[in-house]
Amino acid sequence: MSGPGQTATGTPAQREQRPPGGRRSTGRSLAHVTSVRRALWRAAGASNGQRERRRRVTAAHEIAAVLDVEPGRTPVEVRDALRRRGRVSITTADVARVLAGSPGRFRADGRSPPRWWPAHHLEASVRAAPRIPSTLPRLYTWQQEAIDAWRRRGCRGVVEAVTGTGKTLLGVAAASDELVAGGQVAILVPTTELLVQWRHVLERHLPPSTSVGLLGGGHHGDLGRHDALVAVVNSARDADLRPRRPGGLLVADECHRYGTDGNQTALDVRFPRRLGLSATYARPDDGHLAWLTPYFGGTCFRMGYRRALADGVTARFAVTLMGVDLTVEERAVYDELTFEMSRLRAQLIAGSQVPADPVSAFFAALTQLARRDREGSATARGYLRAMQERRHLLAETPAKTHALLSLAPALAAADRAIVFTQSIAAAKTAADTLLRAGLRAEATHSGLDRATRRAVLARFAAGELDVVSAPQILDEGVDVPAADTAVIMATSRSRRQMVQRMGRILRPKPDGRPAHFIVVFARGTTEDPALGAHEGFLEEITQLADRVTTLAVDVPVS
What we know:
Blueprint: H1 12-17, H2 27-69, H3 75-84, H4 92-100, E1 106-108, E2 116-118, H5 124-127, H6 141-152, E3 156-161, H7 167-180, E4 185-189, H8 192-205, E5 212-216, E6 219-220, E7 228-232, H9 233-236, E8 249-253, E9 273-278, H10 287-296, E10 299-303, H11 305-311, E11 317-324, H12 328-350, H13 359-371, H14 377-395, H15 398-406, H16 408-413, E12 417-420, H17 424-436, E13 441-443, H18 450-461, E14 467-470, E15 485-488, H19 495-503, E16 515-522, H20 537-542, E17 547-553
Parallel strand pairs: 3-9, 3-10, 4-7, 4-8, 5-7, 8-9, 11-16, 11-17, 12-14, 12-15, 13-14, 15-16
Antiparallel strand pairs: 1-2, 5-6
């Protein structure tokens, strides 16, 4: 029903607002709907943006947690770490967007592929450190090839090169590259002697502005105060080695020494670039497979004797094999000890207490069993005791002393010689024997204090001594002055030991003279090359030697 002044079709004012045809206008209602829709879209967009921002913030926190523990990771490595933590759907692109979008929180090192660090790792004291120019001498061809191979592996790997070919300079070259890029370097060494030697090498080849710190041997340096740090592994195991700048290189000299449960803890995962150096990478206990290969990524380059000779980076050499005979009494004792070892070995294997093969596994299990106090431990200790007695018998037989005496004229004509023995007593006997023959000889060994040992080697380097005799102390980890002759008085089946000893005389001589490697062994024993001594080492070097001479010393010793 219509009210006053109204009709069924509305008031006059309403009728005036109607368009022709009598229909109501929809312009205002459509605008209103559009406005509402836009507001809803904006609200939804804002909500999606907020969710995306929250996702990125969460991802940034998670990435920061990864990089705090393992700085210097690539986006792929960060992605893998997050997936291990349960973020199974995150992609490399997701990680890269967060890293690149948070310059105040994360920093890359500029390499390819880039590795990322938390920005707070750039401490104020080192952030502004100047980049260090390189002052290295020209590398050998093989050294450059090794560096290139290492870089192709993402700056990770082990370079295995025989002693005397220049592994140290290779490590310095890698360190120089890292310092030039603004990073920092840690160098692991097994001994305090190498600690000092590496410091001298770095100071000689890097600019004076480079700060080189030491850790171990009474020193307490770290990378918070230095560009490079040389650290003895025993001290590094419990220290904070982490680099404080983006990047970071860890160089492990004699890296096979770190393939143990204790030493592997010094291999800091916070270094993105890792270089191992060794003459003999493989360990008989497979520690290189358990600890070193997962860290370094395996061997990236090998340099053997054949290539070293062809490139002229080692001296050419001659080999003399000098066999001696045990006396009847010594032979009887040797055979008795050998029989006892065979009996105890069979007993241990029959009881499933040690594996029969391979030999490395047998000795690893035997050593562990001997250290314990359980079934089979006494048998294991008996085996090791018999083996040690047999070793001393072979090392200290008077027949070898007589052989050494017969070598006196050759050693007098050499430009310094090293005599390697099995024991301290044998080293002293060797030095006394050669002194009586008119040579200037002296023994160095672990029974002397460090200052005395260094003094002996300094006199040797200065030419004040003709001969230095030593047990295993000179096998590894000591920079022995130039010599051209080595006499091995106590041989073994260890290829590592023979490679290290030969390397002491293989550095090229200024006058181009060849080196001379003399092996004195007891015939018909485990030292005899004809019975498989030296793990094929002698077969390898005799094929490359300029001359191989076989001698027999038949004169009995009274």
